[in-house]
Design goal:
Number of strands of chain A: 12
Distance between the termini of chain B: 18 Å
Strand order of the largest sheet of chain B: 6-7-8-3-9-10
Number of domains of chain B: 1
Shape of chain A: elongated
CATH topology of chain B: Rossmann fold
Radius of gyration of chain B: 17 Å
Largest interface: A-B, 24 and 29 residues
Number of strands of chain B: 10
Distance between the termini of chain A: 28 Å
Strand content of chain B: 25-35%
CATH architecture of chain B: 3-Layer(aba) Sandwich
Strand content of chain A: 15-25%
CATH class of chain B: Alpha Beta
Helix content of chain A: 40-55%
Helix content of chain B: 25-40%
Number of helices of chain A: 14
Order of helices and strands of chain A: HHEHEEHEEHEEHEHEHEHHHHEEHH
Radius of gyration of chain A: 31 Å
Oligomer: heterodimer
Largest sheet of chain B: 6 strands, mixed
Strand order of the largest sheet of chain A: 2-3-8-5-7-6
Largest sheet of chain A: 6 strands, mixed, barrel
Structural class of chain A: alpha+beta
Amino acid sequence: MNWLLIATRNILRDGTRVISTLLIIAVGLTALLMGNGFMLSTYDSLQEIAMRTEGHIIITDERTTALPGGAHQQLTLSGWQAIQESLWEDERVLRVLPRAHFEGIISKGTQSAVFFGSGVDPQEEFRVHGPFLLTSGTLNPWLTAEELPDVMLGRVLARTLGATTGDLLTLQTRRNNGEQSEITVRLAGVFHNGTPRTDNHTLMVNLSTATTLLGTDHISQLSVYLNQSDESGALKNALQTRLDGITVQTWQQRAELYHKVKALYDRIFGVMGIIILVVVFLAISNTIALTIYQRREEIATLSALGTPPARIYANFTLEGCLIGIAATALGMLLAYATANLINASALMMPAPPGKTEGYPIFIYISWPHYLLTSVMFIFIIAFASLTATYTTARSNIASALS
Amino acid sequence: MTARLSLDAICKHYGKDDNSVTALAEITFSLNAGEFLAIEGPSGSGKSTLLNICGLIDAPDSGCYYFNGKPLNQLSARERCAYRRREIGFIFQRHQLIPAMTVYENIAYPLLLNGERPQQIRHEVEQLLTQMGLEQRRQQLPQQLSGGERQRVGIARALIKRPQLVIADEPSASLDHQHAHTGLQLMRELNRQYGASFLIASHDPFVINHCDRKISLLDGRIEATA
């Protein structure tokens, strides 16, 4: 006897019941896949922000943190040009960006504010930040370092100073030897990335502007960007061996915010996932149990005819598996369509912790996750079918037949 | 004559303590091999309960019963299932055909459970389909059959494994007179052919008059035998 054929006939003979069961399972699966897709997309975005901000590998010199003159600047990496050149020869490396961090006071007329500045290679810098650094104004992307150097300000810092593009501003800082240093710059544009610290206090100038201002060719760090993120560990180890005494770290070691936010999201998504899974499990179990209970007369007939209980369990579990396969296929299709619809609609999420701006909702479509979740659902349905059949088959045959 | 089935002081109660209802009280009788025995009585007299106990789908609260001299009281659930599979055929009042199985599959099912070879199953089923006039219906599902056809499939399913005991609960209840007559004739014919004992619960005089013997039940007790 072809049990698969009989199971299929059983599924098809009650269309309304089966359709409602399929929909319950499919909607449950869709909810879980959407949540999962959103979680993956969020983690990926956080990771991307962390990598784009600092680079895949960060090279610093932490041997001389206590500098003479009580200076606050962290310009400790010397001979960085040789390191940069050697890295360019490595085919795994996409970009090597020098950064000189410094701080001081910026003024426009009588308005002053504290700033955290970076001397950068502007063209490359804006390229690696990509969509994570939004710029506006009549921006000169080269941030020229000529007689009147360009500066770019964080959006809120520019607003605090009342500065607009083309305005002249004064940067004051303290060199490593404790001397005061000052330079006049022209505002080339503003930028923002939704992080208050960046938008409120940061500014960027050309690296040569920074070195002139600071009176040194030392920098704070070299940020290394790779073609493949997963090569970070291997290259970091190779560099660490080669650059004796220099600190080489991967982005994971530096991305404190990423780890904190991920830990928070892990808990949020974890709890949400468990709640959805429990609700889905209860809904599926209840629907399957009800469906099987409605067929108790049939189960009693099979028992009365002398069908071994294992055969009855196997038949109903097989039906459960078939319903599971059909329902998860429908659920995957539904999740795929909904994810594409949401991704195309550019809906915005509210600002996450530590940010001032929302971001577009993006739902990842991960086929390995789709398949894994579907297999899990099929197991749940098969298990629900088995337990419901076990319970029903153990009830009194005579009363089920009466 | 050898008693195929014998019952000795069988009692069955439903409910507990003060709410207890006696379904069967001190039922004692024997069913001989090849005998056609009718159980008659009004609704609620205990006919179905008695049939359920004789068919091993329910158990008595007290009393002893035997099948071909072997005691049934101590059988485990698995042994009772095996007995039903091998020795007992059921003809249900509402036919109880398996909805997803075709006529052929419904009839073949008991042989399949007993592990018969496919060739043997095919031969037996085809023979019975012809005998029952169902050969044109072999691929139909139960929902596509008339009441009479379903009853014939039910009879064929009960008899195909040639059981020693056939339990029939109101076999004519859902049939018109003509179909009831045909069904009864079939049972009689197969009774003669295979020597099965029949225990038939009915309150249809037509059915009762066709039986060798009858037992009248009233309020769970044997009121008369004839």
